[in-house]
């Protein structure tokens, strides 16, 4: 049985293949802060419909910085809501324009780190391949777990078998 189409916007299509927990979104043009908030709500609706906590968002065509109010809304309202409604912490890999990467290297930004204050794990990337690798590292695709012997400890631990359907 095929799921109903995901909510989407003309300037930001959202996709998720059947059987995958990876939600993909791609900016088609530079977006205003208001359009970004609309995009965020569409992403949340799509994530809830497909139970996707792993997101790959391509914003490389949107090189401008956004107002501090947008960042505050993301941190104080949006990501806590996403976490509460999904019932787990979202992992979001953001592809950013080369012109933005320089700003991410400033103190206070960790491009490959997590931002726990946002209620989400967020990684910043230039290219898709390392972004997907990071998402896999975060524990993507929750189907299939196996126990493995942790080297040097003699203890078994549960490790997610990582794969995306794309």
Key attributes of the depicted protein:
5-stranded mixed β-sheet; alpha/beta; globular; two-stranded antiparallel ribbon; 166 residues; 19% strand; 7 strands
| Helix fraction bin | 25-40%
**Strand segment tally:** 7
What is the CA-CA span between the terminal residues?
19 Å
Structural class: alpha/beta
Radius of gyration: 16 Å
Low-confidence runs of at least 5 consecutive residues: 106-115, 140-163
Q: Give the rounded overall mean pLDDT.
A: 77
**Run of helices and strands:** EEHEHEHEHEE
**Overall 3D shape:** globular
Strand share of the residues? 15-25%
Major sheet summary line: 5 strands, mixed
Write a structural description.
With 166 residues, this protein is an alpha/beta fold. The chain is 33% helix and 19% strand. It contains 4 helices and 7 strands, in the order E-E-H-E-H-E-H-E-H-E-E. It has a 5-stranded mixed β-sheet, sandwiched between helices. Strands 6-7 form a two-stranded antiparallel sheet. Strand 4, helix 3 and strand 5 form a beta-alpha-beta unit. Helix 1 packs parallel to helix 2. The protein is globular and about 35 Å long. The two termini are 19 Å apart. The relative contact order is 0.15.
């Amino acid at each position: 049985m095929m799921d109903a189409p995901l909510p989407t916007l003309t300037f930001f299509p959202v996709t998720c293949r059947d059987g995958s927990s990876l939600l993909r979104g791609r900016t088609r043009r530079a977006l205003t802060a208001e359009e970004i908030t609309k995009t965020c709500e569409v992403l949340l609706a799509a994530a809830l419909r497909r139970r996707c906590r792993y997101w790959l968002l391509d914003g490389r065509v949107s090189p401008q910085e956004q107002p501090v109010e947008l960042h505050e809304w993301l941190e104080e309202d949006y990501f806590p809501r996403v976490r509460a409604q999904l019932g787990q912490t979202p992992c979001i890999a953001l592809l950013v324009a080369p012109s933005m990467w320089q700003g991410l290297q400033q103190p206070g930004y960790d491009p490959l780190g997590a931002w726990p204050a946002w209620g989400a794990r967020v990684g910043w990337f230039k290219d898709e391949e390392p972004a997907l690798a990071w998402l896999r590292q975060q524990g993507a695709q929750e189907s299939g777990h196996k126990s493995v012997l942790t080297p040097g400890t003699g203890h078994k631990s549960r490790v997610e078998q990582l794969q995306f359907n794309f």
